[in-house]
């Protein structure tokens, strides 16, 4: 797997951790989750910049935001008990489908 993809996947994980901690910080009123937010987002953007060295910004952002949305929806369900209705689940499936199309068929991504 090319370095750009490894950095991108790690950026998605860091962003997901940061967003989960943002929910847990209760609008930055809890210290430890607030610190995790700052560290995780700093790591996410640093790793994102590594991907941007060899991949187009539109592709990187589409994958980063799409996977982040899907992971946060799963974490919201598992950790916070947040439910999604059928249209939301269909929308998430479409996002993941779009990411697969980019990865499998686009010549704009390293293989």
Automatic annotation (TrEMBL):
The keyword Membrane applies. SUPFAM superfamilies: Multidrug resistance efflux transporter EmrE. One of its GO terms (biological process) is xenobiotic detoxification by transmembrane export across the plasma membrane. The chain crosses the membrane at residues 34-52, 59-80, 86-105. The keyword Chloroplast does not apply. GO terms for molecular function: amino-acid betaine transmembrane transporter activity; antiporter activity; choline transmembrane transporter activity. One of its GO terms (cellular component) is plasma membrane. Keywords: Cell membrane, Membrane, Transmembrane, Transmembrane helix, Transport. It is found in: Cell membrane. Its main location: membrane. InterPro entries: EmrE-like (IPR037185), Small_drug/metabolite_transptr (IPR000390), Small_multidrug_res (IPR045324). It is a multi-pass membrane protein. Belongs to the drug/metabolite transporter (DMT) superfamily. Small multidrug resistance (SMR) (TC 2.A.7.1) family. This is Small multidrug resistance pump.
